[in-house]
Amino acid sequence: MTTRLQHLALRSESDVFVARQRAREVAAAVGLEHQDQVRLATALSEVGRTLFTDHGGPAATAAEVWFAVDDGKLQVEVVAIGPGQAAQLPSLGRLVDSLTIDDGPTTTVVRMSRRIPGGVELTPDRLDRIRADLAASAPRTPLDEMAEQNEQLLTALEETRAHRDDLARLNAELEETNRGVLALYTQLSDELEETNRGVVALYAELDERSAQLRAASEAKTRFLANVSHELRAPVTAVIGLARLLDDPESDPLTDDQARQVALIRSSSDDLLRLVNDLLDLAKAESGTIEPDWSDVDLRLLFSQLRGTVRAMATGAVELVVSDPEPPATIRSDEVLLAQVLRNLLHNGLKFTAAGEVRMSAEQHGDDWLIRVVDTGVGIPSELQDRIFEEFYQVPGRSPTGAKGTGLGLPYARRLVTLLGGAMSVISEPGAGSTFTIQLPAARPDGTS
C-alpha cells in the first residue's frame, strides 16, 4: 500500500534546492541512515537540474515531486512537463536502489527508491505524524541549502582524505608485510631445498640398505637350504647306524652301550627334525613353495589328523578333534594345511601337562575359522608376538620336557599367509592358548 508523505512543485531551477532539502528531511523522518539521506537528496537534485537546464533545446517548464512509502521503500517520483529530457539524465544507479525513466512526447517521469532499514516500524499513526511535521516545517533559503551542501561536501572530502591516508598506511603495511613474506618464502624455499636434498640422500641410503638386506636374506636362505641339504644325509646315516647297533639280531650290547646308542638315536632324531625345519623354512622364504589348489574336505582332513596325532597324547591330556558341520569344503592345499594344523596340535600337546587339546572349525561368511585350543601353560602377553620369530622359544615353557627348534610357528604362519589367510593367538599364563587360522573358503585370487 502506497502512502504519500509530501508533494512539491518545481517551477524553476532555484526550486531544486528546496527539493534537495525536502528529500533529506523525508529520508531522515522515515529512518534512512545519513549517507543514504545524502545519496537520495543528491539524486533528486541531479534530476531537477537536468530537467531545468537547456541542453541545446527547450528545457522543462515545470515538474511535480511526490515522496511516498511503499512496501518498505521510500519512493520519489518526478513528473516533468515539457520536451523529453531522458537522454540528458545522468546515471544515478549508484545513488539509489532502483531507477526507472519513462520519456513521453510531453512529459518525463523519473521514479527512484531507497530501501528503509528493517528495524524501522512505520505504522499509519507514525506516517501521519511525519506528514504533519513535514507540512509544518518551512523550507530554508537556497543560500542555506547551498551552505549545507557545501558542508556535506567538505565532510565527504575529509572522509575521503581520511580514507586515502588509511589506504596509504595500509599499503605501506602491506608492502612491509610482502617484504617479510618474500623473505620468509625465500628462507623456507632454501630450507625445503636443503630438506629435499637430505630426503633424497636418505632414500638413496635406504635403497642401498634395502638391497643389502635383500642380499643378506637371500644369502641366509641359500645358506639354510645348503646346510640343511648337506646335513640331512650324514644325520640320516647316523640314525641308520644306531638302529643297526640296537637291532636285536645284531650282537648284544651291554647296558651302558645300549644307553649310549639310545642317546645317539635321540640326538640324531632331534638334529634331523631341526634340519627338516630349516629346509622347510628356507623353501618358504625363497618363495619356491607353490600351493596345489584343490577342494579339501575338512571333515576327512580332521579325521586323518585325529588318527596320526592321537599317539602323541599322554594319559593326562585328551585330544579332541571336532568335525565341522557338513558341507565343510575349502579351496586350499591339503598337504600344506595339514602341515600347519599338525604343527599346532603338536605344540598344544607339547605344552599341556593335563587337560585337553581341542581343534574345531566353523564357517563365518566367506571364511573358515579353524581353532586349536589347549589348557597348557599359556604365553605372557608381551611374548605373544615373539613366538612367531625364527628360533625364539618361550623360556621354561614346556612342562613335558619336550624340545623344540623355534621354527614351527614361524613356518606355519608363512604357510597360512601363502594360502591367503592369517594366524593369530590369544593366550593367558596358566589358562592355555587359542590359535586361530582364518582362511577364505574360495581360492584367494578368485580362480578355480
UniProtKB/TrEMBL annotation:
It comes from the Bacteria. It catalyses: ATP + protein L-histidine = ADP + protein N-phospho-L-histidine. This is histidine kinase. Keywords: Coiled coil, Kinase, Phosphoprotein, Transferase, Two-component regulatory system. Residues 143-177 form a coiled coil. It comes from Asanoa hainanensis. SMART domains: HATPase_c (SM00387), HisKA (SM00388). Its main location: membrane. It is found in: Cell membrane. GO terms for cellular component: plasma membrane. InterPro entries: HATPase_C_sf (IPR036890), HATPase_dom (IPR003594), His_kinase_dom (IPR005467), HisK_dim/P_dom (IPR003661), HisK_dim/P_sf (IPR036097), Sensor_HK_Regulatory (IPR050736), Sig_transdc_His_kin-like_C (IPR004358). It is an enzyme of class 2 (transferase). Residues 226-443 form the Histidine kinase domain. It holds the Pfam family HATPase_c. One of its GO terms (molecular function) is phosphorelay sensor kinase activity. Its EC number is 2.7.13.3.
